[in-house]
Amino acid sequence: MQRDTVQVVNAETEEVVGYVDATSPDLALVEALARMQLRARRRGERVRLRNVPDELRGLLELVGLADVLAVEPEREPELREQLRVDEVMQPGDPPL
Predict the structure, then answer these.
(1) Report field, pTM of the whole predicted structure over 0.70
(2) Which of 4, 45, 68, 91 is spaced 20 to 30 Å from 12 by Cα?
């Protein structure tokens, strides 16, 4: 998935219900997302936005819709052990 593709997720089922291109976010995109949330609420559902780029996140916060549109917080990258790193064994160490 591209970096500027926002996932629209059903808040109850966690099912991805759509994708939105946020390559160049503007107020038209904000309006479309707000209307999408309004339609979902009329059906008794809610949607959340996942993978929101910083530019769109800032725009949603500026117009006061970040909470209404349920923008998921950014996740911290997981810290993982580097691949292909050989650990040095000391004499007398037990085998792994």
Answers:
(1) no
(2) 4
